[in-house]
Queue: 2 jobs
Job 1
Amino acid sequence: MTRPKNIAILGSTGSIGCSALDVVRAVEGLNVVGLSGHSQIDLLAAQADEFKPDWVVGTDPNKAGTFPDCSQKSWDFHAGDESLGKLASGSDIDIVLAAIVGIAGLPSAWSAIDAGKTLALANKETMVVAGQQLARRATETGAQILPVDSEHSAIFQAMQAGNANEVSRIILTASGGPFRDFTTEQMKTVTVEQALDHPTWNMGKKNSIDSATMMNKALEIIEARWLFDIPASKIEVVVHPQSIIHSIVEFTDGSSIAQLSPPDMKLPIQYAFTWPQRVPGPSPKLDLTSAVTMELLPPDFERFPALELGFEVARFGGTAGAVMNAANESAVEAFLNNEISFDDIATACRQIVEQHNFDPNPTLDDLFAADAWARQEMSRWMFA
Ligand code: NDP
Ligand code: MG
């Protein structure tokens, strides 16, 4: 690397954000110039002390006032969502890591694309809601979207083995989550604690519940559809409980190229930061000195109905992604608060997607309106 890359980490206090800071600690030539957090103000302040960025943003209006006095520090603290957009589009920034969870991350990701930045995208919900619009805007501004989601990073890496028009299939791998072997009956009574206990990945709460319902894979099908401009008919899902093969790209000649590594998000984060180069980093390597089992199994669409919904929404495009995502965000929150059961999540999401007033060509404002409508519908669904 020639000069250090200036990086803004949006959502630095989360699981991806903390892994990203581990990468910065270990890899030369990466310079943190901006950080943002929401409710974990103490952690955000500690990160600012260690990394000394220019800008620190706190977005939770109830917590921003508790940020320690930084008048004697080298950085400025800014409160509110608007500051997030300014941080994401700052002239000194090379790479914006979008690691905020949910649609809350969309406006700042949009600001980064609008300003022609390289967007390292962990926040899959952004692509699910507005993938078509973001991809179009990136073409106009010259912005680059580099996937951080492990499956999409794997696909991006595998795609470099051929040309885009030579891809015949994308095969997304899925761990199957903690309920891979549960019966439909068992899934009716699962608890929040069980759903948060993922067998192979250590993630934020929302992503963990999404993995348990396999809504995570539904979101990733839609994410892949827009990131790689590939129709839903060319996307498949295979269950791979060991989470070592992160996804597979099949080319027209029948060659399938996969990316393998132990399940650790530091590697896809680092790849987005250092791309197109590869450098040594903190991620563990595969240990092949003892036997390693790698299973690939077909998914069960009946026990995990979210999957079929993901394929349908990827085919529809338009407002369908915004509605599915908002219904799911509300449903996950309700499940975490013990207001609905685990198997209600996918059922409610399907009903709300089917009821919505579909717009095939929405603006960004239309997408936010569809999001608000779906959240209201979810409240109605819960109390119906
Ligand atoms: P976490 O819940 O661990 O972290 C979320 C981050 O977003 C935190 O920094 C949080 O701040 C911040 N945040 C929460 N709400 C808001 C808001 N309303 N406005 C601004 N910031 C907010 O999530 P993860 O790190 O697990 O996931 C982040 C994104 O990456 C998600 O979109 C997820 O799907 C995706 N992803 C995650 C993977 C993982 O392994 N964790 C793998 C692949 C993708 P605070 O904590 O201070 O409240
Ligand atoms: Mg993933």
Job 2
Amino acid sequence: MDTEKLSSKIAMNEIVNVNTPDFDIDPEKCLGVYDTDPCTIVIMGATGDLTVRKLIPALFNLYLNKGLPKRLQIVGCGRTELDDQQFRKKMENALMALDGKNRSKWLLFKDTIHYFSVDYDNLDSFIDLAEFLKNLDQKHKTQGNRIFYLALPPSLYQTVAQTIGQTGLAHENVNNNGWARIVIEKPFGRDLKTAVHLDQGLRKFFQEHQIFRIDHYLAKETVQNILMFRFANAIFEPIWNRRYIDHITITATETLGVEHRAGYYEQAGVIRDMFQNHMMQLLALTAMEPTSRFEANQVRDEKIKIFRSLRPFPVENLHDYLILGQYGAGTIDGNPVPAYRDEPNVNAKSLTPTFATMKAFIDNWRWQNVPFVLTSGKRLAQKRTEIAIQFKEVPHSIFRQTLGEAIVANRLILGIYPEEKVTLTFQTKQPGAKVCLRPVTMNFYYNQNYSGPILDAYEKVLIDCMLGDQTLFWRQDSVERSWAFLTPVLEECEDCHNREEMLHIYDAGSWGSNFSNIK
Ligand code: NDP
């Protein structure tokens, strides 16, 4: 193409792009026709809540959207004695209203699901499982590729991973193309020591590239969008630093209480449940440096640098940096709800925090002295997840004499829930003869101009496991650095003499704001 034609093409594009963004994107590429290997997904703990509510619906949805490999088998395992038909019926019930079209698809899909009862402490039962899987591989040509998904209480991760390993099922057969992957759900330990111990147990039989530590938050489209937003637009990166940003708030609140998970939550509390994983990941995505390519280990290398740069928490001065709360009785959506201590299976004198606000700093060039305020809690006024970038005020206001007031600084919000959106607030002139400012908000809704399917977080996680793409999964070094930051905080909170005083009781359905006075 000669230069004249080229310049006229550029000019045309410029004109076209003013009003109608010309998305030169292959839709197939984005919707995902995944090049996944044939495989068998073995779910341990398949009679449980996670399998019924999340995993099987996600797999079935992927099947409906042609997201699964053609040769896929699913094996549910558990102590409960069930046959294939009973297990399939249980899963079918969980999918609830299967209408005509989906029902006929389910009848085809359900034949890929099997059940095998196991005894986790008994090696022989796993030897039988290995034989069963081998036969299944041969019959369905799944090439010996296997994902072991531990949908089990975390206390069983080590035992089960080791039993899988002892039967040779963790062994990867490079020549025959047979891979073996293990998936575990948070929590990854309950402090630094136990996280290291868990990893040592897993690493006896599995290598790091075989271990998929899930944080399903990371698989949400809008969470991934943080990196696209930051690194696919030239205009934000130059101002994404201490010179222009005053502080950043990361919020993940919910209206739900502890529900049926009191046994786990009583031992965990909000810091282990939310901060050690989801909040730290949102922090890392917001603060990390760009990678040279969007590739699993490069992304994870940049995240670990953020965790390494976290300023050690000033435990001697805890009150200025951390506020803990626990919900009392209150009202949610007009309905009375009990206090945390009155929930089933919760200790009537429990000191477990259900709310925390924490101020953290990242000691590096970009973020020196910019506070990152992280807030998460249960039974609050609204379910909301967002990252708010609060910019600094203008250095000097030329309107001060006329307006006699400070100008409200710009604010950028990356909304994840309830609305997946990006909003930017800035000042404009109020129409009229007088010089008057008014803040306005520019909104982008994530689903805008898009009508295709959006992958549920578990669907994305399962696809990435099948593809062997670890970008969205925790690497052990990050798990450890994150625990290294939080363990001293937990120790200080749990061992201190004034533990009860530290815990503010807030009304369910409020924002807990009567005591939350950090920034
Ligand atoms: P469940 O408590 O429902 O347990 C899953 C299965 O594990 C049970 O059906 C049971 O199967 C088996 N099991 C339970 N206790 C024991 C035990 N003491 N010894 C041996 N087997 C046992 O767990 P979930 O399905 O809720 O969660 C699984 C994992 O996923 C957990 O690590 C959880 O933290 C994590 N997770 C769960 C989420 C959810 O929404 N449920 C969300 C995020 C993470 P059987 O008796 O048939 O052997």
